[in-house]
Specification:
The chain has ten helices and eight strands. By secondary structure, the chain is an alpha/beta fold.
């Protein structure tokens, strides 16, 4: 199960290095913003769940020329986001939004819901704060994320490594349906990033705060070198290892 305190502290520590290293997150955010603008031509009251350093929140705010509320559980992220224009930042959890019913006509979130403990409860909160007719757009990482890393570690060490229980498309769809969302559209895509070796990948995960995956408590240096060796022999091309990230993108409406 996800330890919310560990995740919160990890992202807080990574806040200063996040924007310099979140190239994948920014690619996904850019596509999410395109999806939103293509379908939601007007928005008056906007909420970003998991607003982080505020970059995506600010992009959405500029697109609609509106101020936007952002919530994030990581204090370090919030301190940076509060310095950005057009944003009102509140420290809070996705499963317990500090807003009245029917407050927003647009709720957005980029790569946050894989970190929540109770996805159905989080979606229930989104439905509650949305106005009738309001839209919900979000992305989250899914099951096949970092499949090369997990396979390499499992074979090299005989142990299992995973990013907690990343949601599947069916789970996301059921959670939306159970919370009375309608006009649901979900797609799944894979992104690929290149790194010099395993150690550069692990360093990058730490720099963006996403290094709190499930693994044995103690990993020996020998195990890491064995993992790197398997990774490079099986997933290296043109001098770089490949890392796959599976992303769910979804749109739903409260009618």
């Amino acid at each position: 199960m996800i330890d919310k305190l560990i995740v919160r502290e990890s992202f807080s520590r990574a806040s200063r290095s996040y924007d310099l290293n979140a190239f994948l997150q920014k690619r996904i955010a850019a596509q999410l913003l395109i999806d939103i603008k293509q379908n939601k031509t007007q928005a008056d009251n906007i909420l970003d769940i998991g607003s982080g350093t505020g970059d995506f929140s600010q992009a959405v705010a500029r697109a609609y020329a509106k101020n936007i509320f952002g919530i994030d559980s990581a204090n370090g992220m919030n301190l940076l986001a509060k310095n950005k224009k057009m944003l009102t930042i509140i420290q809070a959890e996705a499963e317990s939004l500090p807003f009245k019913d029917n407050t927003f006509d647009l709720v957005v979130s980029n790569l946050t819901f894989q970190w929540v403990v109770d996805l159905r409860r989080a979606f229930r909160e989104v439905f509650r704060v949305l106005e009738p007719g309001g839209a919900f757009y979000f992305t989250c990482f899914s099951k096949e994320t970092l499949t090369e890393l997990r396979k390499s570690f499992r074979i090299a060490s005989g142990a299992k490594i995973s990013f907690y229980d990343l949601p599947e498309q069916d789970e996301v769809n059921v959670s939306l349906v159970k919370n009375s969302f309608q006009e649901i559209i979900i797609r799944k895509e894979k992104y690929s990033e290149k790194f010099k070796d395993l150690f550069h990948l692990l360093k990058w995960l730490k720099q963006i705060g996403a290094n709190k995956y499930q693994r044995p408590r103690i990993i020996s240096r020998d195990c890491l070198f064995k993992t790197d060796d398997y990774y490079c022999r099986n997933f290296k091309n043109n001098g770089s290892i490949n890392a796959t990230f599976e992303v769910i993108s979804a749109r739903a409406v409260k009618l």
